Amino acid sequence: MTTKVNVVEAYSLFAWIHSYILRFIEDNGIAHNHEEKADIAIPFSCVPIASIARNLLSTAFPEFDKSTIQDDWEARPLLLEFRSLPQRLKWPIQLDALPEHGIPQIINCDANFIKVLELLLGALVQSRMREGYIRDILSLENNLQVNLMTIIDRNLQDSNARTAETGESHDEDVIRVGTCNKDQPHDYDDITIKALETEFSSKEVLARLKRENQLLKEENVYLGVSIEKSRREEKTWRIAHDKLQEAMDEMKLDSDVQLLKKERQIRSLYEDQITTLRNELTEVQLKSREQCNLMQQISSLQDEVDLLRPAAERTGKAEITIIKFKAKIEELNHGKEKMHLLESSNESLRNRVMELETEMEKAKSLQRRLSEAKNATTTANVRVSELKVQLSMKSAEADYLLTENETLRNSLKEAQSMLNQSTTMANEAVNVYEQESAAVDMLMSEYNPEISEKIARLEHENQELGKRVKNESSENLEKLLDQLDDTNRLKALFEQKYHQSKDEFAVTSAAKFICEQQLAEWKMTCAMQNEELLQQRYRCEELSVEIRNAQAENTFQREEVVNCEAKIEEMLMELEKRSQACHFISKSFEESKCAYSQMQWTLSNRIDMQLEELNTLKCRHQQLSQRHKMLQLSHESLSKCAHDQKVCIHRLEMENANLIDKARDRSVKLQIANQSVDKSEMLVNDLENHVCKQQILLMFSSERIDEMAFTMNVNRNILMMSIEDLRSLLAWRQEQQQNQLQVSDREIRDWRRRYRVLRESMQVREGKLLVEFETMSRVFSIKLTRMEETSMEQCHARIEAQEERIVALLKNQLSSFADVKGKTQDVSRRIENLQQEKNDASEKLCEQLLLNDQIRYKQQSLEILNQTTRECLQMATEDAETLAYDLVLLRDDRRMHQLAIENGRKQYLNLEEKLKLLKVSARSIAKEKENLTHQIQRLQTQFDASEHTVTTLESKLIRLERERSHFTGASDQKRHIDDEKVSITADLSMQVKLLSAELKRAQEEALNGSEIGKASLPSADSESSVNEKEANGAKLDYSQLLERLETVRKTEGSKRREILLFNATLLQTQHQLMEKNKVLCQEIQQVNERLNRALLENERNQQRWEVSALQCGSDTVPSALGKRKLMEQDEKARELKGIVSTNCTKKKKTLFAQNKEWIESVSNTATKPSECTQQ
């Protein structure tokens, strides 16, 4: 008989051990769903209390090994493995969560198990680690603490008695186990009883179970460690994900602000440019008004033309041709072509004049001679004008040279005054220079011999022509000369006005051309921006339409799913009772699937991070290459500076050599001239003092040279230090890149290793799942064999449906495993791509090393150049020392004092010039350094801007990728929903088939019953007919409902398609209309331009006509021609206006008709969407 249990003490013991159970679950990562589903009764054998007790004892008593504890426990029947206690002792426990502690409520409990817990509590309290366990007890409520203390006191009192009666307790425990087995009800399964008998009887089974338990423990430990790692990684990745989301939000805000700023800047620039263009247009209009004023001034000159009417009779035709050529000149833009046209017009005029003169009957010979004289005079005039221009240019040059000579004379006078104070020989040198300058002035004042020859030749020709003309009639010559004078005067006036108008026209045309270019550029930019904005709008509209469609589809699908769920819930209430057995398998599989998906997600994230790191490495490599190029450019500029320094030094040496030669020549001359000065000793003393002063000055100059050399060396050292720093930076960055590549290699190896481990674990899990599936199938087969005898045919059909569903689920899981394998293959491909990118990066590093070697070679060449400059400076210092030594020697020789003084002066001046040149070179080097620094800063700013643009582009790419992933996720969800719909429809169809089969069977049974009851009772016929009618009516109602559902689905799908097609047609029509509007706007602009041109031409023609009418006066021929041309032009302009207006009206009509047709079609499609689908 089972002993009664004190419920209060049992409750306190379970509350005490419940905390240790939770700790064990958290440490080993065992999934516990007690709190989630408290209503489901789960056997207590799922909790490994034996292992918890062993761990507690091993921590409390570290002197004993686990093996001894296990052997001790196995020796006692009370302390067997606690997983087998519920089966052996028939101890069912229902886990219902209590509101206060979440501890399982005790309904029926075994006294042996409670005694074991009491002994464990007493052992832990008596151990060395009892302080921690007492704290755990004190953390409970007061009532529980009191109960536990009573249990501990009772165990301590009975401890001595238990030690004496160990053998007797062993026998009593065995008898209790037997009695418990006898007292169990017969309804319990026979399988558990057989398993218990085998476990107690055979030791081999126990050993096998021990091994399996050890393997399971190891697997649990390994899984717990991996789960802990995955959890930590999940936490880190979540934190990083949150940070990235915050950064992305900030970047979005920054990008939006920048876009707004850019838009405002562009608008402000656009408005400023529009204002500038408007101002320019106003300026052009003012200039055109000024030109109109000039035209009015031209009309005021008609009075002068009236005086010249007799000459206009002969020159009327020439003026007509000139007007024609003016029109042509206005159309032409190049000056050369205009000059050619003018020459051809002049030649035609001359030929026509010759023809008119030949028609004269009285003076044919005079006209021929006059034509020859005219040709000669015109050529002579042209040559004279050219010579005058040349003379003016030469006179300007002569004036410039005279001014330069005057400045030179002033400088020479100043030099003379300085030299007169120093020596008397300077006056002679000044005289020599004056004589030379006088000779130069004489040469410059003469004419150019070529010009003088041309003038003489022209004078000779004029004399010959005069002699020829004297022989002819003087009257005709006087008349012709008068006419020529008049024509020349008019020609000069006309040419002046023509050149003025030409210059003004050129200026206006250039300004107009510039304005047109700017307008064209801004129009292009505005058009590009408008196109981009329109494209963005279209994209946004398309996305919004797609999102709306997706939302509508999602809402419709959700409604359908809700309706289906409402209908299916009633059908699934019966199936939930049978699905509890399969629930544990699905949970384990889902947990494994979630773990695998998490690992896959972590793998993909890490691979993406590695790809991003490789991209950053590439960007850094590009940055290093750019900086390397900048260093190369700086080295090249420095090499150029060094080369320029060499050239300057060489020039200075050449100049010094020339100056020394000149000084020697002059010293020889001065030795001869200065023999009389040797007698004066006072002068010698003064000169000695002067020489001492110059020595002091030379010392000071040498010190300055040393300082300049020191500064140059310091600058060179600074440059070398900067170059060394750049080298160290390059080496450091190369080392960083190599380290990063090594780290990436290690990570790739680790990922491969993990991939192999995951593959092996997945294979093991597949095997386990297959084994579990086989076991479950066996269990189901056993249960089905038992249930066939007791259950009905309907239950049998339902169980078969459940088995088919489980098989389908397992098949889907296997297919998911196949997909996982495919994804692992993709991961391996990505790893291969990463290796290829690594190889490319190594090749780029090799190229960069070669470039670094080239830089080193160039730096060595720069060092060589610096050494040469140092040697040149040392030579200069040695020359200065030799000069000082020469001055010391010259003290003893009195005759050579003046020569030494002059040489010293010259050398001092040369040294000063050298110093100046060195200062200039140093300043130039400093300026070049500043320029280099500015260039480096600019490049850094450009580089920062490029980095900013790269970051913005990367953020945009990340956004696009996220949007793509979002859309792909949405599409996957849609597919998942469609698959669920398909599965639901399949289940419904199966259920319908089953119901139809059941109805058929019921009908058959009813028919059989009716046939049997016809003979016995006539009333049975009526009842069977009623049953048949009800069955048929139910069947028909159910089939009609299904048919209605299918028709509703079909109609809704067709409506959706029609709406989509209608939206597509609307979008197409909108695009077409936009394109048509663009084309029409362009055509309208062209038409407006043509109209403006025609109006301008009309205005010009009217002005010309008025001018020609005023100029011609009584002449009928030119006025008639001009009027005819103007009339023709007016008619052409009117025709153009009529054509343009008709075209515009036609286009407007066609557009209105097209828009009207489109609106009608849209209205028709809105009312009848099915017609659109048919079209």
TrEMBL record:
The keyword Transcription regulation does not apply. SUPFAM superfamilies: Hook domain (SSF116907). It comes from the Eukaryota. InterPro entries: Hook_C. Residues 1012-1032 are annotated as: Disordered. One of its GO terms (molecular function) is microtubule binding. GO terms for biological process: cytoplasmic microtubule organization. Residues 260-287, 339-376, 448-497, 533-567, 792-844, 901-1005, 1077-1104 form a coiled coil. Keywords: Coiled coil. Residues 206-574 form the Hook C-terminal domain. The keyword Coiled coil applies. This is Hook C-terminal domain-containing protein.
